[in-house]
Amino acid sequence: MIDRIFKSLSALLILATVTGCASIKYNDPEDPFEGFNRGIYGFNKGLDNAIVKPVTKGYVAITPTPVQKGVTNFFENLDDIVTSVNGLLQGKGKQGGSDGLRVLVNTTFGIIGLFDVATVWGLEKHDEDFGQTLGYWGVGSGAYVMLPFLGPSTFRGFAGDITDHYLDPYTYSDDAATRNTVTGFELLDKRSSLLEFDSQLEEAIDEYTFIKNAYLQNREFRVYDGNPPEDEDSWLDDECYDEEDEECDEE
Predict the structure, then answer these.
(1) Among 161, 152, 102, which residue's Cα sits nearest to residue 126?
(2) What is the dihedral of CA 60, 63, 64, 68, to 10 degrees?
């Protein structure tokens, strides 16, 4: 049965890829593989509509809100491990130490992270990952890519995700059932946090472009800690954008 499902998904993935690589030409320099990426997006979208979204809606419907919050807190506590290490790698010693203390407090007093005691105690939550660390040290984002099952990323982001994966304690569990259960709940938790944005996505003229732009802008915002450099090509930076400027008329 699992074999048949895997073969069916593989066939759909190949079909989506071939469809996305049709003769249409795209010219976004940040997205040189757009034809391929659109095919992968179509595959991911179909998988989400058929399986992931319905299961997630069922999870939200039958799971009490406090339990959902506990699950979210649990995974955010694991994320704080990644955040702490990457904060230190970026030279943010005080912040990295604070994030490490968050893990200690929430793992002990918060019962393995089910309760966010650290925030109540005034320990601010941050957000760092290895992709951001690479960006902090000057590594370019590279091309935009849409990954099967995983969604939007870039070359830098994907390399960062692989590295961060090894900071997850459950990666080293010898029990496959435990790893799969944790992964399943993590997927449900992440997808449930995005349900409220589904209607906004459906209103987009081009879902693929909407997601790409949102992802790239969000990553740039996070790499620069909320202060990304201004776009030099922006018309707002052009001294002659004001038609009434006499100096511009002279040019």
Answers:
(1) 102
(2) -70
Tens-place pLDDT, residues 58-111? 999 999 999 999 999 999 999 999 999 999 999 999 999 999 999 999 999 999
Considering 15-19, 28-32, 112-116, 176-180, the range whose residues carry the highest mean pLDDT is 112-116
pLDDT of amino acid 24? 64
More confident residue, 120 or 247: 120
Question: How far does CA 16 lie from the centroid of its chain?
Answer: 22
151 token code pair: 């969604």
Cα angle vertex 33, ends 30, 34, to 5°?
80
CB 52 within 8 A of CB 187: yes
Please give the Cα distance from 67 to 63 (Å, whole number): 7
Q: What is the spatial distance between Cα 82 and Cα 76, in angstroms, rounded to a whole number?
A: 10
Q: List CB contacts of 237: < 8 A, sequence separation 6 or more.
A: 230, 231
